[in-house]
Amino acid sequence: MSLSLILGVAATPLMAQEADDDTEVIEVSGIRGSVIKSMDVKRSSDGIVDAISAEDIGKFPDTNLAEALQRISGVSIDRNNGEGQKVTVRGFSASRNLVTLNGRQLANTTGDRSFNFDNLAAEGISSLEVYKTSQAKLATGGLGATINLITSKPLVVGQEKASFSAKVLNDDSTDKGSATPEFSGIYSNVFADGKLGVSIAANYAERESGSQQAEVGTGWRSFNAIQNQDWSGNNATWGGVPYENQVNRPDPASDDIYSVPQTTIYKFEEQQRSRLNSHLVLQYQLSDDIRATVDALYIEKEVDLQYNDISAWYTFAPSENVWSDGPVSSPLLYSEYYGEGSLQDLSMGARDSGTREETTMIGFNLDWQVNDNLHLEFDHHSSSSVEEPNHKYGSANVLSLMARIREGAATDFTGALPVLAVLGSETLSPEQVEVAGSWFRNDNTDMELDQTQINGTYELEEYGSIDFGAAYMKAENHRREAPQVQRDDWGGLGAGVFSAADLPEATIHDRFDIGGGYFADFQNLPAGSWNIVNRFYAWDFNTIVPIAESLYGLPANTICGTNFCPSDNFAAGTDRFVEETLTSLYVQYNYEGELGDMPYDVHLGLRYEDTDVSSTSAVINYESYDSWVAETEFYLTPIDGDFIYQNREGGYDHLLPSINFNLEVTDDLIFRAAYSETISRPWYGDMSGGIVVGSGHNLAGAGGSSGNPSLLPLESENIDLSIEWYYAEGSYVSAAYFDKTITNAITSTVDNSLAPFAVNTPIGGDRWNEAVAAVGIADKNAMRQWIYDNYADGETVYLNDSGFIVIEGLPTDPLLPFAITVPSNSSNKQGYSGLELTAQHIFGETGFGVIANYTAVETDNKYDNSSLTLSVNPETDISDSANLIAFYETDNFQVRVAYNWRDKFLKSYWENAADNAPNPVYTEAYDQLDISASYDVPQVEGLTIFVEGINITDEYTRKHGRAWNQVTNVTQTGARYAIGARYTF
């Protein structure tokens, strides 16, 4: 089939445009039909496009849309609790790709520009289209790609058709959950001689899942080799290690760097999710030339989350360690010894919280073929989205219990799993456990989005055609945070009140299928004989809260009784509002011709975008004193009802050219070339003005953040080349090269000069210095006791309601330093390039087929692990990826096996910005094997039974810092299996 013929019968240039009524529709179904339809979309496109098509109505190839998209070359996914949630395309993270539903942008509550694919059921989607080259008629926002989700339309289906399915899901990751149900249905029909169409799709799904995690919770602190812990010298720093009692420590005279951990945590999480989707479409053919469509979408998702954890926080007391070789040195063994006279806590925390998300959309579309030359389309939709608390204890919380039994702590970092040993943990008993600190939080985010689009095409007959249009979109993003209700009694209270019935014992290491060192290499060192922590108390949050409340009197500033609750007074918390308006115009000229005997088509476009941003914020004001409330914990006191208000504005406009050229070298060989300029707008959270600081901080000082409404969008110059060979029915190979140059990259910078509040802190004041001289600086509790013994006055040095020492800053004390993280535009140019290789082959009439692709991505801006500063803004999410899909299909039976691999990539580079930044986090290489099979029951026409298996080899994810031994997180989720039945007629 020639390219010109394909273009002649293709859909109109507008995304998701329906085929003309007189176009011949060939009914295809099954895996073979799906891959042929997807190939046809790719072949007939105006640029470089990949697609996935449903095998039949209500039967998308994957049950999760993100997991379906990862089968496309250049597309990788991020998983949440083992399930695909967001997509990365050509190295650009989810927030840098534009996702639309039938060409419309939807409101979301992510705070960035990303789209959560796990919110939307796959059964209502008829196809996915991934536009990798830009065209003037495509909305801006996608640097990696524009992804359009297309739903089923009744007048396109053209007949009565329905599909209903039910399945049972069993998730291996959960320890407490059980099998859960999922029900889906889609019904489509036409009436009034095919002029009226109705389609309704609905899905209800429950999932109970969990994970086992090991973490270095607050990340790693990195230092030059010369920095140590000797405060009598000039090179001391908090977290530094001594020169003495170390094995293979980096030479202080070298240029090596080393890193130390802050914590070791084991966390065991359970999650319950319910999701409801419904989509109603009404279509009416007013005349042969005019079609009207009204549709409404509703999405609801509820998530309840619980976890128990056990952790040891390192105090950076003198440590004895074994180090890896430089230039980036990591502790293979990190250990601290405190002694019986300075016991530290072994902490056991828990969480029980819930959130609810709701998204609605209603739209109207009018499609009018004015005459043989002019086609017009009007589309308007309004969507809203809200995420709100859905639990009596709030949208997030933590309650901590502790036992002060830790004489020493050590972590073995030689294996994939960090292994914690605690000297004294063998004595753990319920009588030693006390209530420690807690916090409860309620957050609320909502967004309203209205979008109006007018698109048209004018045919110039032998002179080509012109696409044109205009659009207006207004988005209002509103994030509110109620004041965090926090009890900073981290020193412990209530020893002896708990019994074994309150604190059920649980084990740790038998829950992991991940290898660790288990101190095998360190038996000759003291830490090698310490007890590996393998038991803790997995207590119930709802059981312990009333016990904890009984230990406390009413605080002076009570929110709800004893403050074991979240505040729902959003008017008293941080309030950030961003309004963004976009106005766009575009024109695109399309022409078909021949170079010799080679047909070609060219598309020249120009798009104008104008954006205005307005941000209004109200942030909490604080008292002028800093309170030292526990060993290394400090607290800022909010002033009730006192806010700082800010109004800030920004704006920009762009003229964006694009050209797509497609040449049919032979009947089966197509060459494509494209150039375009595109933009990607800043996140809503990054544009929210107003400086917000955390109420709690440590010895390093207070941290905070502020948005920047004047941020400019990322700008990209794009070059794309592709060659595609369609050598047999349903079979092709292709190679695509892309090169992108990015400017205005948005990065986080820490500004230490900003002082949003004048707060005096005890750190470094006269009383602090006198305490250091009297008892030394190593034992902060001894310092606190000394200050209390010598300066208690009932006002600035006193015991709080729980009996803990509080030391407030005085006007003569130093001002508290603030490290404020602010987003800004970089002046550096950043380069991306990559190669995508794809092959699809159907083995004749055997029923066998295979799809394979490999993507290699490169950037010239990488993170330098051996440097403690950023000389360039490193790229995140860059990685190679590959997919291999094999399938077999007969009249009644089909099976599909899908293998996905993604190489290591930099996930973030600004960990703990207020503490010891920058620090990188890398996600390690990951692969996953999925399988599905179905059987059409011949005795009952339309009935299919099926089974599905996700991550059947039980792979886990792992993240690390500057070196592999610097683990930050290991998460094991397990496999998911489903069995079900589908009935179609």
Summarize the structure.
The protein is mainly β. 7% of the residues lie in helices and 52% in strands.
Which characteristics define this entry?
22-stranded antiparallel beta barrel; mainly beta; globular; about 5% helix; disordered N terminus; about 1000 residues
Notes on the structure:
With 985 residues, the protein is mainly beta. 7% of the residues lie in helices and 52% in strands. It contains 9 helices and 52 strands. The chain has a 22-stranded antiparallel barrel. Helix 7 (766-775) packs across helix 8. The longest helix has 14 residues, at 30-43. The protein starts with a helix and ends with a strand.
- The outline comes out as globular
Approximate helicity band = under 10%
Q: Ends: how far apart?
A: 33 Å
**Binned strand content:** over 45%
Q: Helices and strands: which structural class?
A: mainly beta
Count the beta strands.
Answer: 52
Q: What value does the Rg take, in angstroms?
A: 30 Å
- Please give the count of helices: 9
The poorly predicted ranges are: 1-26
The profile of the biggest β sheet is: 22 strands, antiparallel, barrel
What is the average per-residue confidence, as pLDDT, rounded to a whole number?
91
